[in-house]
Structure formats: structure tokens, C-alpha cells
Design brief:
Growth Hormone, Chain: A; 471 residues
């Protein structure tokens, strides 16, 4: 097997593990809470702390990869993730588990930030889309199989097994990554922008806390106001610092490139739209339709499975015809799927539900590989880590924003309609159903609009023919 393909499969292993762990723990959470006799509010931090630390540090990891080599950061990530998994499985208390999840998230973030950069570096431009598509396929596979794997392991072996299963895979992956990926040689000395890294961490972390908890506390709560102001101030200071230091965390000149800036914006909006589905569809299936968790999980696996199949094909096609048509077309297809979901009723057949979700998976698959290829192909070779980290940040922040938007629209409109129908003397059960359907419809119409905005951002590219800037 040629070197570049060996690297791809090693990177894909790490790319698979990080999102898989997020999804399997979601299923095991209730067992964890029960075992430690904790409340759901405290137990949720097992999931939240993992996502918060990954998202807030991706930019830092990307820059470290550019300065000190992508292989050291990636291999370190594998080792730290494996160590964190061991500590999670051995946790004697819930507080210890939450702390161990922080360690685990540090390793996962390193792997996620470096993966696209390593793939882009070893593959020529004419194969980059296909390679990134295969890498994206592993993320979809993790999301598709994570819930069922988590349920199986928790049911038969207990919740600790969802962490222990990472240890042999992590050890093998660490050894393979160390042996297979070539070490980059650089004689140039670099300085790391510690202040920029700190400000980006504070800015992103505060923003993510606001997006995660604003529905629970509202924007007027002193804590939410404090975190929001902290985020804004940190980002303003970050932009100022980045213009002054010799070697900034993020080279702001990259955003003068319309391929880079608008493709990242398009990626962000695509994940906001996609996570309308991830957040609201399980509520529709289990609360309104009374599907069992197993049946709901099988239905929800439709769109990541389709993404897993189509993403490499879309990537290969983008290598031949470019991304200018494929990327916006994919988001239009997703918008159609979101609109179709908005028309679902309490009596819609499972076939209609599955067909609607298939549009989501198809659109996502058509969009992601070409768009990612455009981003990674629009930067110089010495900025691949930064580009990779920024893309991963857009993905994670988009996911959190998607849940926040979906939750805000759905909850707010459902409460409005429920009050309206009850005041007009509808029976409570009928009022609840009608309010649910109407709020569900409006939330997905918002999602469809966001997908169309993503398609529009994807069209705003430089009119010149795409050129490789890996120099």
C-alpha cells in the first residue's frame, strides 16, 4: 500500500474515535448518573465538558501543528485520549470522571485538528477531495454506529466499557501513527502566541457556554450576560493582538481569500442546519410518535449512513469538476430535506420520515468533501494546521449553535402555541400535539433557510479557477 493511503487510514482511525466517544457516552449517561446517584444537571457535564474543551482549543492545536509539526500533535493526541479513556473507566466519583473527560477531550481535539491537515499534506490536489471524503466518511460512521455501540456495551458490560474499549484501539493507533506518519523537518525557530491562544480559548469557551445554557437561564441572566461580554471582549482583544505579534495564532490575511473565508462560513452554517435534525428529530420520534429508543436510533442512523456512503464519491467527483457546483448543490438538497421534515405530521409514515432524512444525508455528503477540499486547498502549506483547526472550530461551534437555535425556536414557539390553544379551550392533549407540530414545522423552516444561506455563502467564491497554494 502506498504511503499516502497508509497515512489516510491511520488518520481515519483517530477521526473515528473522537466523535464515536461523544456519541456512545450520550447513550451511557443515564447509567453513569444512576451509578453515582447524581442529578441529570450534574451528569450532563460529562458530555458538555468534553465538547467545550475540544471546541475551545482546536485553533490552538492547529497553530501548534504548523509550528512544531502535525505528527507530534496527532500522536500526542492519540496517547492523551487513550490515557483519558483509562482514567474515565476507572473513575471512583462523578467529579473524577468529569476531570478525566477533560483529559480525554484534550487528546480528541489534537486528533480532530490535525486530521485534515495531514491528509491534505500527503495527497496531491487531484486526489485531495476523495481523501477528505473518506476521512469525512469515518465521522459519519462514528455518528451512525455510536448510539448502537454505546447501547450494546452499556447493556452487557456496564458504562465503564464504553471507555475501556478505547484503550486497545488507542494503543494500536498511537503506535501506527508514530511508525507510519513521517516526521516533518524544520530548522526554523518559531515563537508561539500564548496570549492569542489564551484569548481564543476564553472567547470561544465563553461563547459556547452562552449557546449551551442560554435557553435554561435566558440571555438576561447575570451569568449569561457576563459570559457574553467576556466572549466579545476576548475576541476584540484577540483581533488586536493578532495584528501586532510576529507569529499570530491565526493569520488574519487568510480571510482575504474568499475561498477560505466563505467556505468556512458555509461550513459553519451547514452544521447549524444539520444539528436542527440531530437535536429535534429524536424528540419528535420519541415524544410525539412514541418510538422506542432502539427504533428511534435506527431511524436516526439513516442520514449518517448515507453520508458515509456518498461522501467519498462526492470527494472524487470534486477532484474532477471542482466544488463550485457540488458544494452549493449539496446545501440546496439539504434544504429540501429540512423543508420535507417541516411538513411531517403526527401521522406521517416511517417511509416518509426516512426519505426526508435521506435528503439530509445526501445533501451533507455532497457538500462536505468538496467544501473541505476548497478550504484546505486555499491556504499555503505552512498554514495547513491553522486551516484545519479553524475548519474543525467552525464545525463544533456550528453544532452547538444548531442545538441552541433549534431549542430556542422550538421551545419558544411551542409555548406560544400551547398558550394560544389552551386559551381557546382546546383539550390539553390536542393543544399539546398541535403546538408541537407547529413549533416543529417553524424550527425546520428556519433550518431550511440556514441551509440556503450556506448554499449562498458557498457560491461567493473567487471567480478565478481554483488554484493550489501549497507552496
Amino acid at each position: 500500500m502506498e504511503y499516502r493511503w497508509k497515512v489516510l487510514w491511520v488518520v481515519a482511525l483517530g477521526t473515528f474515535m473522537a466523535p464515536l466517544d461523544a456519541s456512545v457516552v450520550n447513550i451511557a449517561l443515564l447509567s453513569i448518573i444512576k451509578d453515582f446517584k447524581a442529578s441529570l444537571a450534574v451528569g450532563e457535564w460529562v458530555i458538555l465538558i468534553y465538547l467545550l474543551f475540544i471546541s475551545a482549543l482546536l485553533l490552538t492545536y492547529g497553530r501548534l501543528g504548523d509550528l512544531y509539526g502535525k505528527k507530534p500533535i496527532y500522536v500526542t493526541g492519540f496517547v492523551v485520549f487513550t490515557l483519558g479513556s483509562l482514567l474515565c473507566g476507572l473513575s471512583p466519583t462523578l467529579s473524577f470522571l468529569i476531570g478525566a473527560r477533560v483529559i480525554q477531550s484534550l487528546g480528541a481535539g489534537m486528533m480532530m485538528a490535525m486530521a485534515p491537515a495531514i491528509v491534505t499534506e500527503v495527497f496531491p490536489p487531484q486526489e485531495r477531495g476523495k481523501a477528505l471524503g473518506i476521512n469525512g466518511m469515518t465521522v459519519a460512521a462514528a455518528l451512525a454506529f455510536g448510539p448502537s455501540a454505546g447501547g450494546f456495551l452499556t447493556h452487557f458490560f456496564g458504562w465503564r466499557s464504553v471507555f475501556f474499549i478505547n484503550i486497545p484501539i488507542g494503543l494500536i493507533g498511537s503506535i501506527l501513527a508514530y511508525k507510519i506518519i513521517k516526521t516533518e523537518v524544520s530548522s526554523k525557530k518559531h515563537s508561539f502566541d500564548f496570549l492569542g491562544a489564551f484569548l481564543s480559548f476564553i472567547g470561544l469557551g465563553s461563547l459556547l457556554i452562552v449557546l449551551t445554557f442560554f435557553e435554561k437561564y435566558s440571555f438576561t441572566h447575570p451569568l449569561m450576560v457576563g459570559f457574553l461580554l467576556t466572549s466579545i471582549l476576548a475576541f476584540i482583544m484577540f483581533l488586536y493582538v493578532e495584528q501586532k505579534v510576529a507569529e499570530p495564532m491565526v493569520d488574519l490575511s487568510l480571510f482575504k481569500n474568499r475561498d477560505f473565508s466563505f467556505s468556512n462560513l458555509s461550513a459553519f452554517l451547514s452544521y447549524v442546519a444539520l444539528y436542527q435534525v440531530v437535536f429535534l428529530m429524536p424528540i419528535y420520534l420519541q415524544q410525539l410518535r412514541q418510538f422506542s429508543s432502539e427504533k428511534a436510533g435506527m431511524v436516526m442512523s439513516v442520514h449518517p449512513l448515507l453520508t458515509m456512503i456518498v461522501a467519498p464519491l462526492s470527494g472524487s467527483l470534486s477532484d474532477k469538476i471542482g466544488s463550485r457546483i457540488l458544494a452549493p448543490f449539496g446545501m440546496v438538497v439539504m434544504a429540501v430535506g429540512l423543508f420535507a421534515i417541516s411538513r411531517l405530521k403526527e401521522t406521517s409514515s416511517v417511509v416518509i420520515i426516512i426519505l426526508s432524512l435521506m435528503f439530509i444525508g445526501l445533501g451533507s455528503a455532497i457538500f462536505q468533501s468538496p467544501n473541505n477540499s476548497t478550504i484546505m486547498g486555499s491556504v499555503p502549506k505552512n498554514r495547513l494546521g491553522t486551516a484545519s483547526g479553524f475548519l474543525a472550530t467552525m464545525r463544533n461551534v456550528g453544532m452547538v449553535m444548531g442545538v441552541a437555535v433549534a431549542g430556542a425556536v422550538f421551545t419558544g414557539r411551542r409555548n406560544y402555541y400551547l398558550t394560544y390553544y389552551l386559551q381557546n379551550h382546546y383539550a390539553e392533549e390536542l393543544a399539546t400535539t398541535k403546538a408541537f407540530i407547529l413549533a416543529f414545522r417553524e424550527a425546520f423552516l428556519v433550518g431550511a433557510l440556514i441551509a440556503l444561506l450556506s448554499a449562498g455563502a458557498s457560491l461567493v467564491r473567487a471567480r478565478r479557477r481554483e488554484k493550489l497554494l501549497q507552496k
